[in-house]
Amino acid sequence: xxxxxxxxxxxxxxxxxxxxxxxxxxxxxxxxxxxxxxxxxxxxxxxxxxxxxxxxxxxxxxxxxxxxxxxxxxxxxxxxxxxxxxx
Length: 87
Known about the structure:
The chain is mainly alpha-helical.
């Protein structure tokens, strides 16, 4: 393997490592949001069971968010990708 090929391989590995770290961070963010939504929904259900309708989400201080429809498979995300994802 030439020095040039080694340098190119090193750049690719760095790019993939950065993209992987971004993906893990996004996964953790989504996991946190889903946990908040699930907890808020359970809190609302418990409140309704005790006769307290229209309770607010104690975790966020506001009603739980209304999520839109999921993205269609194959549809690009609406936000721009970072440089690590662009080739």
